[in-house]
Amino acid sequence: MPLRPWMMPSLAALFIAAYILPLGVRPLFVPDECRYAEIPREMLESGEWVVPRLDGVRYFEKPVLGYWLTGISMGALGQNNFAVRLPAALSAALTALAVFFLVRRFGGGVAHAAAAAMALLTSVMFFVTGCSAILDMPLTMFVSGGMVFFYFAYRAEGPEVKALHLALFGLCIGGAFLVKGFLALVIPCLIIVPFVLWERGPFDGTQGRPEPGRKGGGRGLFRLAWIPAAVAALLSAPWAILIHLREPDFWHYFIWIEHVHRFFSAHAQHVEPVWYFAPVILGAMAPWTVFLPAAVIGLRRRGLNDSFLRFALSWAVFPFLFFSLSRGKLETYILPCLPPLAALIVSGLFAYLEQPRRKLFNAGAWLLSGVLFAASAAVVVCGAVGISPILYAADEAWKWLILAGAALVWASLAMFAARCKRPQESMVLLLSGPWLVMAAAHFALPRSVEAYYTPAALLRRNAPRVVPQQPLFSRAGTVPATCWYYKRSDVGLLESRGELEYGLDDFSDAGVRVIRERRFAKFISGCAPETLVTVVFFRDYYDRKRADLPPPEFEDVSGGFVLAQYRGGARTPAPGRKWAVPNAGKGQ
Questions:
Q1: pLDDT attached to residue 388
Q2: Which residues lie across from 564 on neighbouring strands?
Q3: Is 566 helix (H, G, I), strand (E, B) or coil?
Q4: Which residues of the chain fall below pLDDT 50?
Q5: CA-to-CA distance for 369 and 365, rounded, in angstroms?
């Protein structure tokens, strides 16, 4: 199928409508989105671009490139939700573009390439992550770009072209390292080594695959590895050296706590069983998982002698196994596995649709259509009899109605795809369905969900009550949001340190920033009568501890959060001086 003039503009328009334009509609969620907004904000405010800080405290969990990208976006567009999320959305676009070029060149041409890019962009996890201010999407962009450049180098004929692609591969790996650290080195090795051993090719620039019976192994790969290694090192070295000179403890913490401890320790964060990612990845690739049976049969018919399919399988499978063996697990860890999965599913579906019998494809399309029709009908019936759908308030009918309408359009397109006889038209109908739902989802988030996961409304409406330079406290999980919405980097912590523990405990210049519950009343009594001490709580914590806390002068409750203010009773620090918590701090 040739490249039609309308193809790329249409795909770009769909992407802009679903990914770009609505980015500023939703408030930032705690803690991740607020954290990755606040750290760049503090960089812009302080001019400190080498050492990441959160709430004015050293924050060593990640390198700096992800913060730099967001900081550049905020510097150009302002400190708003749109600017904070834009780097993730652009990273999603570049990842899909990398998949497009890979599949167009080696996986079946323009039709397969456009379908693979659209399948990736419309998968659930990729869409949600691409519209959220977290670092997993920039990491996936750099890893995906690197793997695509590696494969172009692998298949290149001339040594100059091969060297150029290897240099670009190294550039991407260096970028990935500056986003999330040593995973940028581990993931490519997990893919490339098994793939080259599977191919048994010499990787010397003379051929993509060895002659029958000829053994090449990975010897050529190791001979050329200095090119990407040198480029990645040159890109990473300036900041890596600067952070070591400025903060000698950074690399110790980053390597042992953030990598070794998280992978091996029984006490790592987010410990999950080894099978955890199996259902996660099926959900992550939804709705395309309903077509997996047809895709698998199509891939079996195509066979595994194809170098591109071997590469895509190595890319999808080995990082998945690696993350499954890790003790600590988060759903987004497997995001780099989704680009090759999208390419594999699309390649398998096109191969399956080449045969006259297409029962499995039709069954998947009918199943998808039936689920969407049933969900839409249930929502409409609930609204007709006066029952608000789950999580929606009575005055939010327009939200679930636009979702139901978008789902009905998608269900109709899936039904037509099952009835259509031409494979390419079936794929176009199928891939066009999710976009309206995706665009509507930004506007259809229930108010109850927003109130539970973000304190934005609570903090904004109380902003006039929070006087600069007067004491402001928060629980650990709400510190990034409190800092972000009040533009403060001196927020104290009530009882818990959370993710700021290392920065607070290991550096004397962090100051005394933590107060225990049993000393909170004493601190308030030590403040001047005109002082209002403001505290942002999680609501469940506040409900449990309210009897142990002094009675507030003012209290505002919203969803999962509470803002309370307490009247002081003694002298306040002089203007311009940092306030301190008496008799509170490390070890208390």
A1: 63
A2: 535, 555
A3: strand
A4: 1, 202-219, 570-588
A5: 6
Residues 584 and 588: their CA atoms lie apart, in Å, by 6
Domain ranges, residue 400? 359-445
pLDDT (0 to 100) of residue 416? 92
Q: What is the pTM of this model?
A: 0.90
Residues 365 and 341 in one domain: no
Q: Residue 530: its pLDDT value, please?
A: 85
90-131: pLDDT as tens digits? 999 999 999 999 999 998 888 899 999 999 999 999 999 999
Whether 245 maps to a domain, the answer reads yes
Structural domain ending residue among the three candidates 296, 327, 353: 353
Per the structure block, which two tokens stand in for 167?
């240099």
Could you tell me whether strands 514-515 and 532-538 are parallel, antiparallel, or unpaired per DSSP bridges?
A: unpaired
Q: Do 498 and 408 belong to one domain?
A: no
As for how many domains the chain has, the answer is 3
Q: Is 366 exposed, middle or buried (0-12, 13-18, 19+ CB in 10 A)?
A: middle
Q: What is the pLDDT of residue 111?
A: 87
Residue 394 lies in a domain: yes
- What the block records as the tokens of 458 is 């609570």
* Dihedral (CA of 167, 171, 174, 180) sign: negative
Describe the chain by its helix, strand, coil percentages, rounded to 5. Answer: 65, 5, 30
